[in-house]
Amino acid sequence: MKFAEYNALAHNFAASFASGVGLLVGVCNEVYDEARDQPDSFIDIDFLTGVCSPCGSAQLLKSVQLYCEALPDFCAKHGAQVSDLSGFKVRFHSVSEPVCGFTVHLALRDGRAAITDYEGWQGKRARELNAAGQKARRAPERDTMPRSDAASD
């Protein structure tokens, strides 16, 4: 698969979680409300390990667990394998009601990695002014990320 397809898969999975509806697993969550209640206004979730920090409500933790269990099937439906991923972390942030979004940190076992920002409830790609002064989608940052199975967490 092309890396852009993995990135789209990660976005769709994170956007499903962010929606709070829980159609993928049948359990709702309010990740943006809970992020807003945190001192730094964010919650980090590692969808490969199920680690959520800072820890939210029992409902959020249950939703994280169910989404982690659903990830292998979700990947398979999109022509990928969860074993292709070495890192899949998402930071959900919400400063106030209309200002929210998430950042996907995605890394593959072959070394390809990216950090992509999405804005709003819909998870649209973040925009910024380009060199011509036009508003354009912000390109993902190509970066390396520690693997989830690494002991350095």
Sequence-ordered SSE layout with sheet pairings:
Elements: H1 3-19, H2 31-36, E1 42-46, E2 51-53, H3 58-77, E3 85-96, E4 99-108, E5 113-119, E6 124-125, E7 127-129, E8 135-137, E9 141-142
Antiparallel strand pairs: 1-2, 1-3, 3-4, 4-5, 5-6, 5-9, 7-8
- What share of residues are in beta strands? 25-35%
CA radius of gyration is 15 Å
Biggest sheet descriptor: 7 strands, antiparallel
Shape: globular
When the domains are counted, the total is 1
Order of helices and strands: HHEEHEEEEEEE
> Helix/strand-derived class?
alpha+beta
Number of strands: 9
Distance between the termini: 28 Å
DSSP helical segment count: 3
The level of helicity is 25-40%
Poorly predicted regions: 144-153
Mean pLDDT: 84
In short:
Helices cover 28% and strands 31% of the residues.
Overview of this protein structure:
This protein is α+β, with helices and mostly antiparallel strands and 153 residues long. It has one domain. The chain has 3 helices and 9 strands, in the order ααββαβββββββ. Strand 3 and strand 4 form a beta hairpin. Residues 144-153 have low confidence and may be disordered.
